[in-house]
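Sample 3 of the quickstart, ligand NAP:
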Amino acid sequence: MRILLLGANGQLGRTFLDHARLAARGEVISASRDGVLAHGGHGEIADLSIPESLPAVLDRVRPDVIVNAAAYTAVDRAEQEEALATRVNGEAVGVIGNWAATHGALVIHYSTDYVFNGESAQPYAVDAATGPLGAYGRSKLAGERALHASGADHLILRTAWVYAAHGQNFLRTMLRLGAERDELRVVADQHGAPTDTRLIVNASLAALDRWQQSGAAQRRQLRGVHHLVASGATSWHGFASAIFEQAAASGVLARAPRIIPIGSADYPTPAVRPAWSLLDNTGFQQQFGFPLPDWRQGLLEVMRQLAPSGH
Ligand SMILES: NC(=O)c1ccc[n+]([C@@H]2O[C@H](COP(=O)([O-])OP(=O)(O)OC[C@H]3O[C@@H](n4cnc5c(N)ncnc54)[C@H](OP(=O)(O)O)[C@@H]3O)[C@@H](O)[C@H]2O)c1
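Result:
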């Protein structure tokens, strides 16, 4: 099996590469925007902002499985660059889907809680009505629709509040600011489930294994959208408090700053964020036989990676 990993240098892409179990499933060909890999060396060049360039790469690699971890993820900047975000997150995904449909490849693609408007009072079901609040969410929804319309075999895995020990994410921002300041103000009226990239990778591999073991009828049922997030719920304020508690306990920070809860209105951003980002993940757990633990478990594991030796 040949597996093409798009977006190899992102938070999720890097965790896929750190994970030897992906390589155990087949030959992994990594691709990034310019072909340079963060881990060193070179891979394929796959620039999703030039969708028409992608079929040539796909023809050369001829993957059986395409894992698309590449995306335009600058949520605020997308408000000014919606056309670019839509090319990367929407059109390119359609082109990948069309190639996969013609060549019998499976596409594993990632989407987001931002396809919803956040006005729900309960976790969003996979078939709940979408209604993105901003350009990034609209571009990701365009990608979901383009992949569906391509007719390719696909798994769209919606995730949320993604973080890792590496890359740009809330946890790393908090640790940086927490080392510099005695007090931080953090939004307490947005709710979600922080999801670490190792959980996403392990769950994606379980989904791939289930797909490979399934016959045509079962694949028809698995095809489509799934919610791949950690279980439980918190706010950004709750997540920050847990990060600092564990960071102080594990020696990542000498001391925890004071965390002041604020409302979204006190922290205006160019893109409006959904207030309610919880996704119902029970279907994923049942269909792929993979348990999705509470978000605190992932935090413990990431903090363990960051802790100085001896802790
Ligand atoms: N981060 C979150 O909180 C979050 C939440 C919900 C869903 N998701 C989804 O989860 C998936 C993985 O996200 P992530 O957190 O790993 O994102 P990330 O760390 O921002 O990584 C995205 C990767 O995509 C690459 N990329 C951007 N534009 C590209 C282009 N034109 N051509 C090729 N590659 C391009 C980036 O390349 P460079 O390294 O060159 O910039 C980067 O390596 C995405 O589908 C995202 O929408 C993320």
